[in-house]
């Protein structure tokens, strides 16, 4: 330590400051190919859309449900989708947590596995409905997911941050949006049936 010229002035050596947090990574096709969790969390590429990745991810979830539904029903019967959703929730929690951590972003918009699980849940609970029923459910879900009214906003803010808690939070608000969608549909059906 240097001796100061003025005895009332103390020369303190600078302390090393904490390292700055790493900058977020760009989420692109190269990032997606870097780890298997990224493929899942990014909806097998649908989350890479530069326009409305949540909507594109939900459309991918819709298309994949239509393609998988017959196979899942034949392979496992009525409980098939329940098992797929449970497995998708566990694997998705890991994939979303891992991908958000690698991206260094708490809840990247490119992660769309939450939308995929939510739309699968809605279509499974609704049961067999035609195109127009699925379109109506899709539109209601997108409203709840994007606008985040009431309970969806609460769910979105409940589990913030990184790590496993944040990974669950990525999924949780979309599952609440799915529940809100189903409640509105059930209410609408009940009111329709109550009409004279």
Give a written overview of the molecule.
By secondary structure, the chain is mainly alpha-helical. The chain has one domain. 67% of the residues lie in helices and 0% in strands. Helix 5 crosses helix 6 (131-147) and helix 7 runs antiparallel to helix 8.
Could you list the spans in which at least 5 consecutive residues all have pLDDT below 50? none
Provide the residue-averaged pLDDT: 90
The proportion of residues in beta strands is: under 5%
State the assembly state of the protein chains. Answer: single chain
Termini separation comes to 91 Å
What structural class should be given to the helix and strand makeup?
Answer: mainly alpha
Order of helices and strands: HHHHHHHH
DSSP strand count: 0
What's the topology here?
Blueprint: H1 29-33, H2 36-41, H3 53-76, H4 80-103, H5 113-126, H6 131-147, H7 150-158, H8 163-194
Task: Give the structure's gist in a few sentences.
With 196 residues, the chain is mostly helical. Helix content is 67%, strand content 0%. The mean pLDDT is 90.
Task: Name the descriptors.
196 residues, mainly alpha, globular
